[in-house]
Amino acid sequence: MKEHLVALLRQLHVARPPRDSAPPQEYFTRFYRRNSWGGHASRSGPGSEGARAEQKIHILEEIIAQFEIASILDFGCGDFYWMKESVRPPLRYHGVDVVKQLIQQNEKRFSNPAISFQCLDLSDSADQKKLAVRTADMVVCLDIFGHLLNHEVTSLLQFIFDDLAVKFFLVTNRREETSADYLARPKTRSEGIDLELHPLFRARHSKRVKQIAALHPNDYFDLYELHAFGS
User: Fold this and answer.
1) Burial of 123 (0-12, 13-18, 19+ CB in 10 A)
2) At 227, is the pLDDT very low, low, confident or very high (cuts 50, 70, 90)?
3) CA distances from 217 to 86, 136, 174 (A)
4) Nearest-5° angle of CA 84, CA 87, CA 91?
5) DSSP-assigned letter for residue 137
6) Measuring CA to CA, how many Å separate 26 from each of 18, 30, 107, 146?
7) How many Cβ atoms are within 10 Å of 85's Cβ, its own excluded?
8) Mind giving me the DSSP string for 45-107?
């Protein structure tokens, strides 16, 4: 009886979702291990497979061709499930994620002289200093900022703006009546936001050069030109 109770308590502990206050690496590792987003082909969730993934592939390939993108930094690369369809020679790619097991799998399956991966939490200043590739034509952050807390959003955004030499910034924004509420209260790890309303973004005056409506209601793929870097 005692052993049964102990086993039950362990199951409940494992099944319990991580709290929002958990550090990103702990939080997302538990989500990926348990496939909490319910993906069938990809543990990155429904946004990384099926019609939503096909849309992302099409959009990325269109941007690569239109703006002559030769190198990409991808923050929150996940399992590289759909992105591998768009990363073709001679494009150079560096993917970053906080889940160690995913990065190890990606390295074994996909790494080559033009494709590399790194396990880092880029909302953390110590890990920001460890980023191996800091120059690229475009930095990609799709479906990422909605899963970050306020201080993590600010830290990652500041890092992209001030410490990277990138020409373009591709991000997912959500535009609803509540999309700016996170600025006045603690943000959860499960709410889409509009980065354009963030004080750092507004002060930057980055030019939006492309906007495409996503399949998810009120979500948009926004491409910005970051004037401070590149030539």
Assistant:
1) buried
2) low
3) 24, 30, 8
4) 160
5) E
6) 8, 6, 21, 17
7) 15
8) -GGGSHHHHHHHHHHHHHHHHHTT--EEEEET-TT-TTGGGT--TT-EEEEEES-HHHHHHHH
Instruction: Look at strands 71-75 and 135-141 and give their pairing.
Output: parallel
- The contacts of residue 96 (CB under 8 Å, 6+ apart) are 73, 74, 75, 76, 77, 117, 118, 119, 120, 122, 131
Task: Identify whether the C-beta of residue 163 lies closer than 8 Å to the C-beta of residue 134.
Answer: yes
pLDDT above 80 (res 75)? yes
pLDDT tens-digit map of 176-202:
999 999 999 999 998 999 999 999 999
Residue 18 in this model has a pLDDT that exceeds 60: no
pTM above 0.90, yes or no: no
* CATH 3.40.50.150 assigned to 2-225: yes
Q: How many CB atoms lie within 10 A of CB 230?
A: 14
Strands (DSSP E) contained in the chain are 71-75, 92-97, 115-119, 135-141, 165-174, 207-213, 219-225
For tokens 């709410």, what's the residue? 191
Residue (of 62, 63, 58, 99) closest to 80 by Cα position: 99
Domain ranges of the chain: 2-225
pLDDT of residue 2: 55
